[in-house]
Amino acid sequence: MGFVDSYGPWAVVLGASAGLGEAFATGVAARGVNVVVAARRGDLLGKVADSISDTHGVETRAVTLDLGDPGFLAGLRSTTEPLEVGLVIYNATGVYTGEFEDQPRDSMRSMVAINCLGPLMVCEHYGRSMVARGRGGVVLMSSGAGLAGCPYNASYAASKAFDLVLGESLWAEWRRHGVDVMSVIGPAMDTPTYRASMPPEVLAMTPPAMAPDRVVEEVLDGLGSSPSFVPGQTNREALAALGALPRVQPVEAMAAAHAGFAKRHH
Ligand SMILES: NC(=O)c1ccc[n+]([C@@H]2O[C@H](COP(=O)([O-])OP(=O)(O)OC[C@H]3O[C@@H](n4cnc5c(N)ncnc54)[C@H](OP(=O)(O)O)[C@@H]3O)[C@@H](O)[C@H]2O)c1
Q1: Which residue lies with its CA nearest to atom 8 of ligand 1?
Q2: Is the minimum distance from the CB of 141 to ligand 1 under 6 angstroms?
């Protein structure tokens, strides 16, 4: 089956106003699927939606929402109810870097709402119709940070471990219904959020991050082939090597990589 037959006629991309999410929405449209783009910044979303329909000749809808808002699904449903949604990509994320004890409780709650509760609700709502229809796809963005303890990024890393295991579990549960689920173990990717999250001195010392459109191509090509996936051959090799080591070593490697996020006096 072609991409549209498997995952069309509509996709929903959550967190699509910029960066990787915009690249996902564009990549899906380039394969002939209509797209609902959603994020908080409505002005950017409108531009993304118009540019996608102009370039790829598909239909688009834009929904302004905050995935940290417990009622977000009602707003999204009112737009998607009349549409047959065959693909959902949960790209948005909460972010926090710094000392764990300095993270405000509201930021912790929002991390769980956006990165854990949001994917659960979206999978339950859209997955139910896909399972009934016997076809569809779901992509959940996890991270290399979710593979091992990640100091100065603890709540984010723990939430990304949640996404990884949620997607892998649903891959096994839904494949017999024809629904392809994949957790993406995100490597460093060159997006505005990534650049903004790095202290300039850390960014300057870091090797170039992967281009979002390359990530999107690999993910869309591989959807359904495995429960989780690492984009980029060198990233796959590095993570495989790290995973074969005793548990303490990946945690210490993460600590070294994130040392720049510790307070200066450490
Ligand atoms: N970039 C990396 O290096 C990297 C590495 C590993 C994993 N990942 C994962 O890859 C995904 C993409 O991350 P990214 O850094 O590349 O970001 P991105 O796709 O460049 O941007 C994040 C998108 O999510 C939206 N968003 C954020 N919070 C939202 C909220 N509360 N409600 C609705 N939309 C929201 C943002 O739009 P608005 O601000 O307009 O809402 C934006 O469109 C994330 O799941 C991340 O965990 C990224």
Answers
A1: 186
A2: yes
